[in-house]
Amino acid sequence: MKAERFKHFVAIDWSGAKGARQKGIAIGVADAAGGPPVLAEPERAWSREDVLAILRDLPDDTLVGMDLGMSLPFADCGAFFPGWEASPPDAKSLWALVDEICADNPNLEVGNFVTHPDLREYFHHGERMGEHYRCDGAAHRNGRLRVTEHAQARMGCRPHSNLKLVGSGQVGKSSLTGMRVLHRLGGTVPVWPYDPLPDSGSVIVEMYTAIPALSAGRSAATSKLRDYDALNAALAHPAIGSPRVRGSGALSDDDADALLTAAWLRVRAHDPALWSPPGLTRELASTEGWTFGAA
Fold first, then answer.
1. What is the C-alpha to C-alpha distance for residues 66 and 77, in angstroms, rounded to an integer?
2. Phi, psi of 200 (to 5 degrees)
3. N or C end: fewer C-beta atoms under 10 angstroms in the chain?
4. pTM of the complete model
5. Would you say which domain of life the source belongs to (predicted)?
């Protein structure tokens, strides 16, 4: 891959919470020319619709990493929703289904999907675990995982199932709301690996912000950075090599995740190995997808 393939690097720390605007959404930006990563409009409370508008109008040759699961487990049971005759055959069909069922939900929320009479039994809700949440009992202790999430675990991460809607580390609603955004993009920006990596132009990938933190010498238990000193120490790590950001004292982990991930993308995006991970098959590319940087 050409060293100059991407000119801009954007990391979006995502949120699946209810409401029109989300304190948990943060957008970090790093420029290929160098300099410290910066936050886009740091005082702004972003909406998911705001982010969708940004993705529709990206600068040329921008790599965007979104911190969410872009699909659900498929390989473990041969289906997203095993036993349901309408289970989608691939990820893009899943995105369309989520958006269709949730058409009446405001703010790109997904309440209709997780309470759907045919689908709620596949999720771990606050009050109960769905009958099919563990796929006939065959599941990781944190629920059904995708192949890429098993790869994350081998790296030292602590992935949770995208079907989990409750408790610490739950990522289900973030993943599902993100799928609505990806569907509404309508193919205007390629989403890897569901789409092939083009020779030029912008691309969106899935990120797990623990991976840049691990690269910077943190452990899964200490992957969240909550002050400027911790962030700048991570940015200065030889694996990242970024100039420090200005500031002192406390910092939200959402902002820190976005800044560190943008800087990490800048140094790792041109590594051909990350675009051809050994576990990524053609079938996975169309169904479960992959997390950029998982190996």
1. 26
2. -150, 170
3. N
4. 0.96
5. Bacteria
Q: Parse the chain into domains and list their residue ranges.
A: 8-69+191-199+210-275, 110-183
* Beta strand segments in the chain, E: 8-13, 26-31, 38-39, 62-67, 203-207
Residue carrying structure tokens 């789409």: 195
Average confidence (pLDDT) over 233-238: 97
Instruction: Name residue, tokens 């991570």.
Output: 234
Q: Tell me the three state secondary structure of residue 28.
A: strand
The stretch 128-134 carries a mean pLDDT of: 86
Strands 38-39 and 203-207: unpaired
The DSSP H or E segment spanning 51 is helix 48-56
How many Cβ atoms sit within 10 Å of the Cβ of residue 218? 20
Residues in the chain: 295
Query: Could you tell me whether strands 203-207 and 62-67 are parallel, antiparallel, or unpaired per DSSP bridges?
Result: parallel
